[in-house]
Write a structure and sequence with these properties.
The complex is a heterodimer.
Chain A: E1 3-6, E2 10-14, E3 19-21, E4 23-26, E5 33-38, E6 44-50, E7 56-58, E8 64-68, E9 73-78, E10 87-96, E11 99-105, E12 109-114
Parallel strand pairs in A: 2-12
Antiparallel strand pairs in A: 1-4, 3-9, 5-6, 5-10, 7-8, 8-9, 10-11, 10-12
Chain B: E1 4-7, E2 10-13, E3 19-25, E4 31-38, E5 42-51, E6 54-57, E7 65-66, E8 76-78, E9 87-94, E10 103-104, E11 108-112
Parallel strand pairs in B: 2-11
Antiparallel strand pairs in B: 1-3, 3-8, 4-5, 4-9, 5-6, 7-8, 9-10, 9-11
Classes of the chains: A mainly beta, B mainly beta.
Chain lengths: 115, 113
Amino acid sequence: AQSVTQLDSHVSVSEGTPVLLRCNYSSSYSPSLFWYVQHPNKGLQLLLKYTSAATLVKGINGFEAEFKKSETSFHLTKPSAHMSDAAEYFCVVSDHPDSSYKLIFGSGTRLLVRP
Amino acid sequence: EAQVTQNPRYLITVTGKKLTVTCSQNMNHEYMSWYRQDPGLGLRQIYYSMNVEVTDKGDVPEGYKVSRKEKRNFPLILESPSPNQTSLYFCASSPRQAAQPQHFGDGTRLSIL
């Protein structure tokens, strides 16, 4: 069965410093992986997705993630944090090789950005 | 504008009083899902629908019902709500093709007293 582990429940960084949010997954298939962001009182917004085309995936707002099959990881990074990046981030794996209707969510990482 | 719309956004009610949360999408998506979000647990799927009149249980279906009579609508029904159903609920939709991201509504916060 597929599963997702987000290794940190909270990450705190200073504005202008790099962001690293860690995610490990397990999957029986060649997985589709996603990162979503959730701002307070809002739904989830897609940041980026990996679907086997390229291991380094660029997303919106300067975020990127690298798929490492040997490490079963899909960590999210950003070179320089902005105050507006403060939110909760979810790593997600698709539970079915032929569709995305069933997603498995990590427990989330709350990113705090200090001035 | 492409969107998933949920109503109501907030609801406080009492145990046993039937309620319905509506969800509508304007993107002609085949797939729709309901999730609940609880602290430390991420999002867990309640029910999903692959198309009109086709629904199936997700990971936490107990105490919930759904229907899919039209492609755009996917209401979530709590026949006899209980306090353990107090949560933040999200509806989502996606196209049928593989590896397509789901589009989420803004959420419905339910409090069952």
